[in-house]
Amino acid sequence: MKNRLKVLRAERDWSQADLAERLEVSRQTVNAIETGRYDPSLPLAFRLAEVFETTIEAIFEPDG
Amino acid sequence: MTPETIDSPNLRRNTIALGITWFVAYWCARAVLENPDLAVGLKVAAALIPVPIFALFLVLFIRLIRTMDELERRIQLEALAIAYPLAVLLLMTLGLLQRAVHLKFEDWSYAHVWVYVVMFYFLSIPWVARRYQ
Questions:
Q1: How high is the ipTM of this complex?
Q2: What are the strands, taking DSSP E only, across chain A?
Q3: CB of A43 within 8 A of CB of B1?
Q4: By the CB < 8 Å criterion, does B2 face chain A?
Q5: Do B1 and A32 touch (CB under 8 A)?
Q6: Taking a C-beta distance cutoff of 8 angstroms, is the pair B3, B67 a contact?
Q7: Contacts of A24 in chain B (CB under 8 A)
Q8: Is residue B5 within 8 angstroms of chain A, CB to CB?
Q9: Residue percentage of chain A with pLDDT more than 90
Q10: pLDDT beyond 80 at B1
Q11: B75 close to B128: Cβ distance less than 8 angstroms
């Protein structure tokens, strides 16, 4: 699954650690999601959308 | 998601410390049990000393798992999913080999083999974690 996490984070000038703190997850988890190595659960995807004040569809899109 | 609390370094440190304490207690018990002159009651007591320490370790370990986020829990689960079949493979192979040839009890009994099961789990964790880095 592709995502715009890095772009959204850069727009707000947040580090991975900043985002991890807001999401209450580890920095490794943020990095794994950002690099597409891990697809988050639905609750975490909703939390991401909430933190970035957008929708899940605006953050994630399916491959291909 | 929703870990009960943010990952606590103290909890992690205490869990590791208790794990080491249990491991030391186990080997001390093993050393004490080597003494053939010891009374049976003392031998049983020595054999049971590591049990409450491990029980306490388990309580802390479960608490630690509950503080982990979803990716960390997934890594633990995948590590177990690798370690468990490896343990089954080891025990099955030893069981079959025991029927084929004589394996020395001192080297290949359950008293020794369980250490490999723990080792499989702890080796699997960094191996699985690497996939998500």
A1: 0.87
A2: 2-3, 60-61
A3: yes
A4: yes
A5: no
A6: yes
A7: 1-3, 6, 69
A8: no
A9: 91
A10: no
A11: yes
CB B75 within 8 A of CB B116: no
**pLDDT tens string B71-124:** 999 999 999 999 999 999 998 998 898 888 888 877 777 777 888 888 999 999
Higher pLDDT among residues B5 and B108, named by residue: B108
Q: Do B1 and A24 touch (CB under 8 A)?
A: yes
3-state secondary structure of A2: strand
Place of tokens 């999601």: A33
Among A44, A4, A38, A50, which Cα is nearest to A24's?
A44
Q: Which H or E run includes B70?
A: helix B70-100
| Entry pTM | 0.81
